[in-house]
Write a structure and sequence with these properties.
148 residues, 5 strands
């Protein structure tokens, strides 16, 4: 009974990982459909975020703050993507929503590799869980005796 619950949990975890990847992929695709206008911008500053890796070493991630102009109006936006380094004054390509120019992202930030990787990992976990049911059923099946 306990092993059956573990197998079910593995399958459910796999499906949860798939669902999370699909939700992120859908959100990124929606962003691509809505933020269709493109302009040039400039990184004006950044936010530093400190974290520690598994060995206790401090990591610093940077979230660029950039400005761009649409129809003579200047906008400022902070990236939601971490960068290993940021060069203040660097020119960047900004995608924005033509109906709401405050909504934006930097070119290259809306990649979907991680979402596809997550979905693939979920599929693998779910397959392992489902396969464990078949292996367990096969192991429990009594072998037929053959007459000699």
């Amino acid at each position: 009974m306990k092993s059956t619950l573990i197998r079910i949990a593995i399958v459910l975890v796999g499906f949860a990982i798939i669902a999370g990847g699909m939700m992120e992929l859908t959100a990124k695709n929606k962003l691509r459909r809505e933020l269709t206008s493109k302009t040039d911008g400039v990184i004006i500053s950044y936010i530093e975020d400190y974290s520690y890796d598994s060995e206790g070493d401090r990591q610093i991630d940077f979230y660029p703050i950039f400005t761009y102009t649409v129809d003579g109006q200047k906008y400022e936006c902070t990236s939601s993507t971490r960068y290993g380094s940021v060069e203040v004054g660097k020119s960047v390509v900004v995608f924005y929503d033509p109906d709401n120019p405050d909504r934006c992202y930097l070119k290259g930030e809306n990649k979907t590799f991680l979402q596809f990787f997550t979905i693939g990992a979920g599929v693998v976990v779910a397959i392992i869980g489902v396969r464990s049911f078949f292996i367990s059923a096969k192991a429990k099946k009594p072998e037929k005796e053959t007459a000699v």
